Amino acid sequence: MTDARDSDAIAHNVQSVLHSIRRAADRVGRRSDTIRLIAVTKSVSVSGIRHAIAAGVRLFGENRLQEAIPKIASFGPEAGLSWHFIGRLQRRKVRSVVGAFAMIHSVDSLELAAEVNRRAEEAGACQEILLEVNIGGESSKAGFSLPAVVDALPVLDSMSHLSVKGLMAVPPPTREAESARPYFRRLSELARSLSHANLRRVRMDELSMGMSNDYEVAVEEGATFVRVGSAIFGPRAL
Ligand SMILES: *Cc1c(COP(=O)(O)O)cnc(C)c1O
After folding, report:
1. Residue 195 falls within a domain, yes or no?
2. DSSP symbol at 173
3. Fewer CB in 10 Å around end: N or C, the chain?
4. What does the alpha-carbon distance between residue 215 and residue 60 come to, in Å, rounded to a whole number?
């Protein structure tokens, strides 16, 4: 948990991450305003979040619903914050997530997508989502396999209360950031190939990839959202 002492450190870290994003974008000739920083606040206190807001952050990511709901509630609409859900989502929790989060990055099956669509319809909303892809083919990890995501698109396109914006992935853990590059590239290429599918509503504009240790490589490979926690808030107690 963070406290007031961390205010300067958090402000410094936010600037340093934004600077690294700009440099990475420059290296590959991308406009840095096409890349959004999501400050990941799992295990970060409300005061830590306030420090990030003071440093200019408005977009936050949470992956634990129980922890997120009271945090979100402690900021009114005047704060102008946007919350993205990035963690494993159980079907029975979908109802609480729809509406509270502007975007869900972790839709990892058609069954879950159908539930999000159903709950969004009940709420009279249209929920923005990303499809989580198991880009490393890890048996321990959630996400659509590459062939499954191709097959899912026409079905997703018919879900009228979903707005599919693109893809998300968490590559297998690697020691070197550079080792994540092939996975980021594969996700980029997948999104590019899927964007040619002739669909009415599904879009492939957003790529959510890159965390504290590899977000610069992710930016070089086309990320539009990077999800950064510990590089902003410091190491998490587990
Ligand atoms: C925790 C988490 C992050 C942020 O991780 P850091 O290494 O602290 O930057 C990003 N994405 C997901 C899905 C996470 O669970």
Report:
1. yes
2. P
3. C
4. 16
- Give CA 142 to chain center in angstroms: 15
Ligand 1 pocket check for 42: Cβ under 6 Å: yes
Q: How many distinct structural domains can be found in the chain?
A: 1
Domain presence at residue 184: yes
The answer to whether position 77 is within a domain reads yes
Angle in degrees, CA 103, 41, 134, rounded to 5: 55
CB of 212 sitting under 6 A from ligand 1 = yes
Spacing, Cα 139 to ligand 1 middle (Å): 20
Q: Could you tell me the residue range of the domain that residue 20 belongs to?
A: 7-232
CATH code: domain of residue 45: 3.20.20.10
Which pLDDT tens digit goes with each residue over 125-163?
999 999 999 999 999 999 999 999 999 999 999 999 999
pTM tops 0.85, yes or no: yes
